[in-house]
Amino acid sequence: MPAKPAPIKKTAKKAEKPKKPVEPKDPAVPPEAAVAAAPPPATTEPQAPPEAPAETAPAETVPVKEPPKAPTPPPQAGPPQDLAVDDVTEKSLTVKWKPPENIGASGLDGYIVEYCKEGASEFVAANTELITSNRFVIKDLATGSLLNVRVVAVNAGGRSEPAKLPHVVPIQEVVDRPKIRLPRSLRARYIKKVGDQINLVIPFIGKPNPVITWTKNGKPLDVKKVNVRNSAKDSILFIRKAETEDSGTYQMSVKVDSLEDKADIEIQIVELPGPPSSVKLVDTWGFNAALEWTQPKYNGNTEITGYTVQKADKKTGEWFTVLEHFHRLNATVSDLIMGNSYTFRVFSENMVGRSESAAVTKNVATVQKTGIAYKLQEYKEHDFKEAPKFTAPLSDRAATVGYTTRLLCAVRGSPKPKIEWMKNQMIIGDDPKFRQNSTLGVCSLEIRKPCSFDGGVYTCRAKNALGEAAVACKLEVKQVMIPDMKK
User: Fold this and answer.
1) What does the alpha-carbon distance between residue 321 and residue 305 come to, in Å, rounded to a whole number?
2) Which residues pair with 261 in a beta bridge?
């Protein structure tokens, strides 16, 4: 018998096309079972004898996709801030506000202004499209109506919480908008001393029927300390005797219907500061002393501008200023005297003045003596005693009858010598015709209206315990010659 043909393996391999594994519809059925249940492929070629089963690769597991998460909506913006009325007319209402503190990451798209009449519950949008401005005019309103107004901020997260006006707004014409005319002196901080009188006159305008209110630091005024008098044109704030407790921010408000104007006045009441809390002597060397002190516990309701340092010698006890308007909390006092002991004190200073009391050092700064001690040499006292001696003698003179003449000389001596005048060796004494004088060693003899008998020798004698001296001169008195008119 003829031999059987050998099987064609290549043809069999071409006939077999690999099929993709069928994904099971039922997740409970494993992929291997699905492959086994698949029917064998049909072929017209003679089938080859079965071969040894080849090792099949394990089927890949397909991951199951999770459903997508819903996107997180962006956060809403915060409500608008400081919603207030800007203007009112007979037919319109203007409101203004500030942007919200939180506008969200996506930014702010705009605002919606809504209003409703008093007694109604539904709000009506005044703008058809979002606005980006912080001011809006609601038009075509009925005169005399009462409106509630609110503003909503809108961003990608939607509408914010509404900002509402705290009161109902009447739609009517305001004759004069309220306006405070704050004086220039009150626009800065108003400073007064303790005990001073405060009388602030603040004019304003506003019609009809302005309502004036005052507050201090956001609270009503104490009527026992502060008096307020209002008129149609101004308001007066009066404090009879100011104290430090009266310091603060005073706010005046002028309100006409829904319109309001405010003004803040900063009042500061100051007084003298207290002394430094303590002062101590840190060190002493040579002719210097180092001091330190601390700030006062009470500054007089204003800042400390400096310090005054004084010293006192223990011998005299008198205080002398060594530093004034000094800004630091430590100082070195120099030029102290050797051998003396000193006490120091420090005053505080502010814009009012120097503190009434001072902080005094407890310890005493003693400047020790150094080097060779100086011994005062002994000197013999000079003996100024001296016998009389004439330094300017008398000079001979000639006088005319009836004309007063004077004799002069000078003498020195210690002790002061006694002066005597003599005429022709006779002491003149207290004769009224002669006037004797001795001043600072100058001796004079005045002869009043001499006659021919007053001529002679005049002597001046000076004597003291150590001796005596004398000088003399000759005086000649001449007769006046009258010419003979007969010749």
Assistant:
1) 17
2) 254
DSSP line for 27-52 = TTS-HHHHHHHSPPPP-SSPPPPPPP
pLDDT over 70 (residue 229): yes
Look up residue 276 and give its DSSP letter: B
Give the predicted TM-score (pTM) of the model: 0.46
Tell me which residue of 128, 126, 140, 130 sits closest to 95, measured CA to CA: 126
Indicate the residue type of 215.
Answer: T
Residue with tokens 């009506």: 124
pLDDT in tens, 244-295: 999 999 999 999 877 889 999 999 999 999 999 999 999 998 889 999 999 9
- R_g of the chain computed on alpha carbons: 62
The letter for the amino acid at 354 is: R
Name 296's bridge partners.
276
- Structure token digits, residue 224: 């026992």
pLDDT given for residue 26 in this prediction: 43
Chain segment 72-123, per-residue pLDDT in tens: 667 788 899 999 988 888 888 899 999 998 887 778 889 999 999 888 888 8
DSSP lists the bridge partners of residue 148 as 116
- Tell me, what DSSP letter sits at residue 217? T
The single-letter code of the amino acid at 163 is: A
Count of C-beta atoms within a 10 Å radius of residue 13? 10
In the block, residue with structure tokens 């393996």 = 9
Count CB-CB contacts under 10 A for residue 306.
Answer: 15
Exposed / middle / buried, residue 144 (Cβ in 10 Å: 0-12, 13-18, 19+): exposed
